[in-house]
Amino acid sequence: MDTSNLKPCPFCGSMKLDISAKRAQTYDIINYRTCVYCKNCNSYGPRVLVRCNDPKTPTYLRTMDIEYNEKAKAKAIEAWNKRSV
Questions:
Q1: Torsion angle, alpha carbons of 5, 10, 11, 14, to 10
Q2: For 27-42, how does the pLDDT look when each residue is reduced to its tens digit (9 = 90+)?
Q3: Which of 20, 27, 50, 65 is most enclosed, with most CB atoms within 10 A?
Q4: Domain ranges, ordered by start, for the chain
Q5: What residues contact 68, with CB distance under 8 A and at least 6 apart?
Q6: Is 6 left (phi over 0), alpha (psi -120 to 50) or beta?
Q7: CA distance linking residue 84 with residue 77, whole number of Å
Q8: How many Å apart are CA 42 and CA 50, to the nearest integer?
Q9: How many whole angstroms separate alpha carbon 77 and alpha carbon 19?
């Protein structure tokens, strides 16, 4: 995921940014909770949630679903860049 289009941190102005992507699975639903965070001041942007709950796909395959993880990262970048300072 390309992070070069991220705006600087609104708190410290740093460009030392990264994306935190956590996958949490409950029963037949996988949630990707994702946000942009600043490595300099440890502030976090809005957390976004993307769900992958296709019942046709076996659970062990859905745990490696790159498509949904990439969607979550794209939404986190969008949310970071839209936030108010």
A1: 30
A2: 666 677 789 999 999 9
A3: 50
A4: 17-82
A5: 30, 32, 50, 51, 52
A6: beta
A7: 14
A8: 23
A9: 8
